[in-house]
Amino acid sequence: xxxxxxxxxxxxxxxxxxxxxxxxxxxxxxxxxxxxxxxxxxxxxxxxxxxxxxxxxxxxxxxxxxxxxxxxxxxxxxxxxxxxxxxxxxxxxxxxxxxxxxxxxxxxxxxxxxxxxxxxxxxxxxxxxxxxxx
Length: 134
Prior knowledge:
Layout: H1 7-19, H2 24-28, E1 34-40, E2 48-53, E3 56-62, E4 70-74, H3 76-85, H4 89-97, E5 101-105, H5 108-112, H6 115-128
Parallel strand pairs: 1-4
Antiparallel strand pairs: 1-2, 2-3, 4-5
Helix pairs in contact: 3-6
């Protein structure tokens, strides 16, 4: 099974994202386009990325230096916890204020104030948990 945020893992995450109407279809309604990096705190760059066009993932891979719209970092233990249990709105707020989830790039405030973005963002943690990993 692929490791969290590895090239194989983000490829499977992209497929799971596109298969979930609460992500791809919901974000397509607001013409959401972004390149999102995922990684671990303390590392100089994210490990993997997904490219989202009109709400759906169109490209994934190991991070290759491209410009990111969002760069999300947390400890491996916290990512694992959120993959297993998901992350609700209150949990997200706590993770952000205690710096357990860090937005290296991206505007948390703008995202959280927009229900059309916040709901799918929270859903993405549940979808992460459906991707097998080792």
